[in-house]
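lol ok so funny story. i was supposed to be doing the assay writeup but got distracted and ended up predicting the structure for this chain instead. priorities right. anyway since i did it might as well share w the group, maybe its usefull for someone
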Amino acid sequence: MGEVRTMLGIWAADGSELQHIDMRVDTGASYSQLPGKLLRDLGWVPTFPRLLADLADGTQTTVELGEVRIHYNGADLTRLFVFGEDNCPKLLGSDTLQGLRLGVDPVNHRLINVAVYR
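and the output, tada:
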């Protein structure tokens, strides 16, 4: 599968600003990730204590998680984000994809709407 990228809006914690960020879609990541400094500059703070996380290469690390208000295609919702290092990749993870009811079209390298099942 090729790389899929999308623009995601990140609200400031006080709702005063909406910053659009180019993100790489990573269906293997549980949560979305942005540099912690970027999130803190927008007024967000981690709401979970440091948690153990497995990286794609099999190593483990600890991460900070916090709720962040996002905007995509006319919808606003809150999702958990990893507060990453300053140089970390900007990743849109599976939790955010599911919350936005999006899937990945691997042939056309784009996001698609998916049906809601219950």
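The two ends are 28 Å apart (CA to CA). The mean pLDDT is 93.
back to the writeup now i swear
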